Amino acid sequence: MPTKTVALEKKTTGPVNVASNLDLRFEEYWGHIRASGQRYPDFDWPSLELMLKFIYTFDVISKHFTKQIKKTGLSPAGFNVLVILSRVEDKGCKQREISKLLLVSRANVTGLINHLVRMGLVERGADANDSRVWIIRITQKGKTLLHSYLPEHYREIKRVCACLNGEHKRIFCGLLTKLRENTQ
User: Fold this and answer.
1) Cα–Cα distance for residue pair 29/60, rounded to 1 Å
2) Where in the chain is the domain with CATH 1.10.10.10?
3) DSSP bridge partners of 159
4) Of 161, 160, 152, nearest in space to 70 by CA
5) What is the rounded distance in angstroms from the CA atom of residue 146 to the CA atom of residue 160?
């Protein structure tokens, strides 16, 4: 599918590639929200523009890394579980602790763990102190998968972030922390 280039707004410093429905939706929101928002006293275009670009960028990056991770046969949540379990080695981790540490929705941790067990990537066992509690451990197969994929994963993160120098990354991390803290 050929991409088309459009200028989304006069203040934009350069053209924007429009290559997907998401890009087209963003273009649609860009003009309509800015125009209709003027009716509201608390409307602040720079703040809204920041939020739209933040959400749009998160969606683009999330879809990109989901596609990369799926090459392993895992979902991002499954990959995240393996990373969490690799940090605790053979000690394992309580299933409810995994649900607290996940960077994605915790809605169906049991289903996620069941899937990883069926794949042979993790094993589930009862806690010696409390039979109601499940301890989840990464298997050798899970370790092998994770360790074979992580170099590619880190290389791709580095490539995606290569447009920012160290100072940009430090400032950006600080700004994201401020936004998160102000939201909480």
Assistant:
1) 16
2) 74-184
3) none
4) 152
5) 20
Rounded CA-CA distance 120/141 in Å is 7
Q: How many other C-beta atoms lie within 10 A of the C-beta of residue 164?
A: 12
152-163 burial string, b = 16+ CB within 10 Å, else e? ebeeeeeeeeee
Residue 184 per-residue DSSP state: -
Token duo for residue 78: 């499954």
* Tens-place pLDDT, residues 29-56: 777 787 788 888 888 888 988 988 898 8
Listed residue (48, 57, 79) closest to 66, CA to CA = 79
Q: What is the pLDDT of residues 69-81, one digit of tens each?
A: 999 999 999 999 9
User: Rounded to an integer, what distance in angstroms lies between the CA atom of residue 160 and that of residue 57?
Assistant: 12
CA angle 104/33/5 to nearest 5° reads 80
Domain boundaries 74-184, CATH class: mainly alpha
Segments in the chain below pLDDT 50? 1-18
Report CA dihedral (8, 11, 12, 15) to the nearest 10 degrees. 60
